[in-house]
Structures are given as C-alpha cells and as structure tokens.
Amino acid sequence: MCGITGWIDWKKDLTTQADAIEKMTETLELRGPDASGTWLSRHCAFGHRRLSVMDPANGAQPMVRPAKDADNHDCVIVYNGELYNAPELRKELEGLGYRFRTTCDTEALLLSYVEWGPGCVEKLNGIFAFAIWQTDEEKLFVARDRLGVKPLFYRREEGRFIFGSEPKAILAHPDVPAEVDAEGLAELFVIGPARTPGHGIWRNFHELKPGHFIQYDRNGMRISAYWKLISNEHEEDEAQTADKVGALLKDTVERQLVSDVPLCTLLSGGLDSSALTALAVNYYKQNNQGNVHTFSVDYVDNDKHFKAHDFQPNSDAPWIKRMTDHLSTVHHPVQFDTPELVNALEAAVLAKDTPGMADIDASLFLFSREIKKEATVAISGEAADEIFGGYPWFHREEALKADTFPWSLATDLRASILSPELREKLRPHEYLSDRYSQAVAEVPELPGEDEAQRRMRRMSYLNITRFMPTLLDRKDRMSMAVGLEVRVPFCDHRLVEYVWNIPWNIKIAGNREKGILRKALEGVLPEDVLYRKKSPYPKTHNPNYLTAVRTQLLERLDDPSCPLLPLINVPKIRELASASDTNSHLPWFGQLMSGPQLFAYLLQMDFWLRHYKVKLVL
C-alpha cells in the first residue's frame, strides 16, 4: 500500500511548487516508507509514498504511460491499493496489443484506464484509491474501491482541487487552514468515532465515498457512483448458498495471498480469523510455501480482570492455541500493558488526524507496529459481522426497533457532556436523527418483503455502509501508520453482493448468528471453533486503564488553557469521573467503548485541538 496526494490548479503554474508538493507527500511517509516520488506539470502536481509489495524494483510512482491514440501525450497515475485480478487484466490488455514494462498492478491499472477510460473501475477487483491525469485533455480522474477499504479525501474550491490519502496531506498545502466548523464538531461529538459517508470533518474537506469516482477539468467536478448494493431475489437453497459462499471466500483468500514480501494472518481464535487462516494454511500447503505466520493481541493481566458478558463471552487465548496447534502455524503472541496503551492514544490521533476509538485504535497501532517487524502484509477478518449479521444488535428486538443506529444509543449521554452553548448549536438529537433518516432512505428495498425482512435488510445496510467503514478506516489508518498493509477478504465485492441478498432465515442457518458462513466452513474448521460464540476485538479490562485516563482527563480540565473547556460540560464530566463503579458500563459507542473509552476520547480530543492548532469556525 501507499500514500497519494495531488493538486490541480488552473490559476497557478505548479512547476514552481515543487517544495509544496514535496511537503504534502512527506506527510504520508509512514504509509509508504520505501520510496518517494513527485510529478509536476503546469496545472497538475502529484506526490506518492511507496510501500513496496509487488515488483519492488520496477513499480515506482508516479507512473507515466502514453495515452491511447495520442502522440506526445501521457497519462500519469498515483495509486494506493492492490488489484487481486491484475493477472486477468494484464492478459486481456496484452491481447489488445499493450506491452508491459513491469509486473506490478499499478501498470495494469493505468493501462486499464488508457483502454477503457472511467469504465475501467467496473473491471477491478481489489482495494484502491487512485488518481490519473491526462496531460492532453488536462483532466483528472479519481476513484475509490467499492467498499471503501482505502481512504481518499479532497478539498475543492474555485479553480483548485486538492486530494490525499489522509487529511494531513491536504492540511500541508500552504493555502489550507486547519479549521473545523459546527458540522465537523457534530460528527466528532454526536456521530464519532463513526463518520457520515462523504464527510471530511475538517472544514471544506470531503471524503470520496466508496464505489464513486470524480472527473475534474476546467468545466468543473462531476461525481458518479459506479457501484452500489442492489436487492434481488435469492434463488439458491441453503446448501447451494453455503457452497457458493465457501467457493467465493476460498477464491478471495487465495487471490489475496499473492505477495512479493512477507505475509501473515491476524488470529483471534474466532470464526472469521480462524477461517481465513485455515484457508491460507491450505493454500500454502498446496503450493509448498511453508508455514503461515499468525499474530494475536492481548493485554497484561487481562485474564485476571476479564468478565464475560454478551458482547465478549470468553477470552481468546485458549481458542488461539486451539487453532495454532490445529494448523501448525508459526505464532507470535503480542501483549501490551496499560502505560503503553495510554501513551499510544496520541499516536493514534496523529495516524487518523482526528480523535478515534481511543484504546481500541491505540492497541491496533501498537499491534501493527509489532507485526511490521516480521511481515509487510497481513490478512484480517474485518467485515464478516456486518455482512453476515454477526453483531448482537442484529438479534435483539429493541435494537432492531430502535429508530437510530444500534451502536449510537447513548445520545442523551453524549448531549449531556457538551457545554450548553455547543449543545444548542449542534442539536445532537436532531443531527443524529437526520443522519439516520438519510441512511435509511438509501436502503434498496426488495418488493414483496414483509416488515421483518425489510427490517433485517435495513439493519444490514446500516452496518455495511455506516459501521463497517468505521472499522475499515481504523484498520487502514492504524496499520498504514507503521507501513503495514492489511487485506480484508470479507470485503470482496462479489462476496458482499451475494451475501447481501441471502434471506435472513438462511443467513442464520441452524438458528445461529452467521449460520450460513459456519455451514460454508464445515470441514475447514474444527467443530468447536466453527460454533464458538462471537467475541470481538479484545480490549483491556485492567482497572488501571480507567484510573489512568480518568486521572489524566481531570488534570487537563484543571488547566485553564485546555481547549476542551468551552466545548464540554465540565461538571458533568467530573460527575461521571467520580462514579467509578459505573464508568466501565457507560454504553458510549458500539460494543467496545464505555466509560474508560469516553475519557480517553476526550483526552484525544484535547490533544487533537492542541497539536493541530484547530481553529473552530462556529
């Protein structure tokens, strides 16, 4: 993976702006520690930081190739991602007369655009964000993968378009201020750590939505959707459906195991990560590639403080050992202690450019850093719960009937921690309601479904388009902050499209969450692992973490210069901080973030406001 940035300007000669594009590019150094490149013309400047995964010797970017049927004109690309069908694209293009100079997928992508133009995106299987400049027509084409695994942000103003893999690249532009308006604060305080699709948090920043592309030239900007979920009747029975799911997953995993650098899998002992690891082990055996390396994460003394509950019914450690023994992987257990987690909260903000999932982000950052010492590519099980309906809120009547996002049920609490002035300006309940209504209005209904079926389709849509992007963004930003590429097979668009239309009664085959996935994996996993109850990404249960973040937050609130003070209800925060017996049970966000994470989020907010010198435009 890599980091990309660029700048189109109709009023300025960008050949004089080498220093500026270099500075923008260097903000992405951690995403691409292996090489750096820039390309400048009169009205276009591109920057690229490279993480070498395929064809390290020849895949330098920005990459330039001749435009189709155009003498002395070129197409220039900067690209972040991986194409898992690059061999098929290469073969088709060679049949059309193209000659390749490298074996990297960047060239396959660029020549696909040269041949098919914007329609090339429909041929791609992979995770990507890329920009292509046509020198003859002076037009820009920018696209993002269907599920939004790879990020892309942009800022457009009169005569100028700036983009980057992360906001930090845009913020490094000499004319871009670090400003946040009321809507950005509403995203952080009401929606966060999730984010409304397309919202860039920073003032006048936008996210290119998944499955969309931009065309930009002197006539302006046009945004188009090239992919979306479509509801159709499902024709296969349960057995046929399980076979199809199994075949799609196997093909997806095998495509994503291709790499010219060391690769590993993340293993929790749960259904999703165990399935991917087992499929990887089988593929390695068939191709005599040796043992698969696996990594797991936990926390010092977590076993002493763990308490089972609906979201986390048991600890991972025994199940990880069960799978590593069963598959004979080379396993690397990683552990962190409380001080490390607290200290990494700021690193997580720098990776994300905003506050995030607190210690859930921080631990993934630390975990990725350890993995990077042994591997450059990792396979991870994100998205299975959203796609197959694994979360508890898929199976609870009160969550299904709640007129809001099931991971954001604490709106009253969120509103209560805001200062009266900010609460009046943001109107948290209205803001959340509007965002929820917007999401529900997008759901592609299937004629003939009854109310219960429509409700499950709606819940699936909310999870795929609103909750899953939060976890994908977290995974990308924390892993790429240490130069680790993480691939997510459950986000293969063919699998997502197919599972989207599986009726709920088949999805819960055997009356189990993700039942059809379990059925598809019969014979791949041991039965006890196959039917293990879901347990999410592990978090620390050590009370020392709560003590540490609560103490630090109270100290910050005692500082008269604290930038949080005008934004929050300080007496309410102190009240919550004093109620030590309830802090661990505050349902602040999702299934993992409660009292300690709320305090840590506010610490991150304080650091973010200070470090980025955020100017609030209210």
UniProtKB/TrEMBL annotation:
It is an enzyme of class 6 (ligase). Its EC number is 6.3.5.4. Pathway: Amino-acid biosynthesis; L-asparagine biosynthesis; L-asparagine from L-aspartate (L-Gln route): step 1/1. PROSITE patterns: GATASE_TYPE_2 (PS51278). Gene3D superfamilies: Glutamine Phosphoribosylpyrophosphate, subunit 1, domain 1, HUPs. GO terms for cellular component: cytosol. One of its GO terms (molecular function) is ATP binding. SUPFAM superfamilies: Adenine nucleotide alpha hydrolases-like, N-terminal nucleophile aminohydrolases (Ntn hydrolases). InterPro entries: Asn_synth_AEB, Asn_synthase, ASN_synthetase/amidase, AsnB_N, GATase_2_dom, Ntn_hydrolases_N, Rossmann-like_a/b/a_fold. Keywords: Amino-acid biosynthesis, Asparagine biosynthesis, ATP-binding, Glutamine amidotransferase, Nucleotide-binding. It catalyses: L-aspartate + L-glutamine + ATP + H2O = L-asparagine + L-glutamate + AMP + diphosphate + H(+). The active site is at residue 2. GO terms for biological process: asparagine biosynthetic process. L-glutamine binds at residue 105. Belongs to the asparagine synthetase family. This is asparagine synthase (glutamine-hydrolyzing). It comes from Cohnella abietis.
